[in-house]
Amino acid sequence: MDKYKxxxxxxxxxINFAKTIMALSKLEDGEILEILIDDGxxxxxxxxxVEDEGHTIEFKGEESSxxxxxxxxx
Length: 74
Fold this sequence. Notes:
By secondary structure, this protein is of the alpha+beta class. It has a single domain, classed as Translation Initiation Factor IF3 (2-Layer Sandwich). About 30% of the residues lie in helices and about 30% in strands. It has helices at about 15-25, 40-50; strands at about 5, 30-35, 55-60, 70-74. Strands 1-2-4-3 form a 4-stranded mixed β-sheet, with helices on one face. Helix 1 (about 15-25) packs parallel to helix 2 (about 40-50). The longest helix has 12 residues, at about 40-50. The termini are close together. The relative contact order is 0.27.
């Protein structure tokens, strides 16, 4: 599986969700998108919204450089 990375720290909710969905739309089924987002509202809402779109959250954890890392399988 290939892995793609996007840094959405500093991008407000729901724009970070829209950017995540756009990035996922460019991937093939089974590929992995890794995103970085800020702490706060997005870490609660974004993973659920992504799952509601039919994708799988493989990993969600705090990032040592600040914010959160989320790995999504399309």
